[in-house]
Amino acid sequence: MKIQFYGLLILFVLSSCITMQGEQMTLEERSVTQILGKVTTTWTAYNFMNIPPSETAIENKANLELLAAARQQGFTGNVEIKNIRVNSSFHALTVLMFFTNGCFFGNFQKVEASGDVVAYNFAGGAGMINQARLGNVLETVSQTLVERLPENSTIAVLNVSSLNRGDSEYIINELEYRLVNSGKFNIVDRRRLDQIRNELDFQMSGDVSDASAISIGNMLGANIVLTGDVSGAAASQWLNIKALDVRTARIIAMAREQL
């Protein structure tokens, strides 16, 4: 019994969870691509003699599996997988193998991977944002919000509606970063916000009504929610952000800058 106990203990240690994040897209890459959506997949991996594969091997495997999953979901044409994230955890097959053979020569792991489906050679037009202007615009918009919103507010940055999910995600991340760095507000944890998004099935780049935004703000314990959109086309595009008071449903601040 002791041998089995220590053997299982070693197996659990060797099969501990591994988290890996691949190289993320740069702002320059985002300017010439369109993020079409997110794809996820799972598979079972076997580590012979408990030797884990290299991060490069894991990322290459994840890329192949995610690309295959993307094809199955209908993503066609010149697409690639970017912003890959991988998590692996202990698999029950390892215990089964131990009790069956009385020894072990490796371990099984359940691997979960996710990534963004990206299209290159995007034709541009209405969905393309002037990246050279975006940094300055976000600085101005953030400063306007910092000056007009009540200090110590709990804020949830819900969504920015646009034709490119990558642009929406970048704008939301930058707004959160700049509001946090002002030291004046509490920002809702992104994991809680992502959970609500998944439960309610809405995208950060899609439209969200004021009523829905307020309802989500209540779920998150926020007293202010930010929503916005990228309007216009080609050389005449605008970033619009508004702040809603969750309790009164009033618009308490707005910022609008040309991209």
What do these coordinates show?
Helix content is 39%, strand content 33%. The protein has 259 residues and is of the alpha+beta class. It has two domains: 2-120, no CATH class; 125-258, ABC-type transport auxiliary lipoprotein component (Rossmann fold). A hairpin with a 5-residue loop joins β8 (236-245) and β9. The longest helix is centred in the N-terminal third of the chain and has 18 residues, at 55-72. The chain is globular.
Topology:
Layout (H helix, E strand, L loop, with lengths): L1 H13 L3 E4 L5 H5 L1 E16 L6 H18 L6 E12 L2 H9 L4 E15 L10 H18 L5 E8 L3 H17 L4 E2 L2 H11 L9 H11 L3 E10 L2 E10 L5 E8 L1
Helix pairs in contact: 1-4, 5-6
**Order of H and E elements:** HEHEHEHEHEHEHHEEE
CATH superfamily of the largest domain: ABC-type transport auxiliary lipoprotein component
Total strands: 9
The value of Rg in angstroms is: 23 Å
Number of helices: 8
Terminal Cα span: 69 Å
Strand order of the largest sheet: 6-5-7-8-9
CATH architecture descriptor text of the largest domain: 3-Layer(aba) Sandwich
| Low-pLDDT segments | 122-126
Please give the domain count.
Answer: 2
Going by helix content, strand content and strand pairing, the class is alpha+beta
Query: Percent helix among the residues?
Result: 25-40%
Shape: globular
Q: On the 0-100 scale, what is the average pLDDT?
A: 78
Offer a concise description of the structure.
With 259 residues, the chain is α+β, with helices and mostly antiparallel strands. The protein contains eight helices and nine strands.
